[in-house]
Amino acid sequence: VVAGGKGAGNGLHQLNRPTDVLIDKETDSLIICDRENYRVVRWSRRSGTTQGEILIDNIDCWGLAMDEQRYVYVSDDEKHEVRRYQLGEKNGTLVAGGNGKGGGLN
């Protein structure tokens, strides 16, 4: 077990329905969609790590991606949008969607 493993819950040592994970090689950590806790967390891959750090909260995270400039892209299932974040940034920039649920390309 490299993250969580203490049963479902909302403590920083717990995850609740994680839906996606990516590896940040620069910080040797995992960035995890912790969906039922409405947050994105970072867990160090170094041994002895016992809890995560909240990067983004109040988000119904479903998926993650990171580009070469280390921007993190997060899909929000509840808001039907994708936002781009610099690590440490809380609000992000809307890059796709944001117009509610629908089949349109906007």
Automatic annotation (TrEMBL):
InterPro entries: 6-blade_b-propeller_TolB-like
Name of the featured protein: NHL repeat-containing protein
Organism placement in taxonomy: Eukaryota, Metazoa, Spiralia, Gnathifera, Rotifera
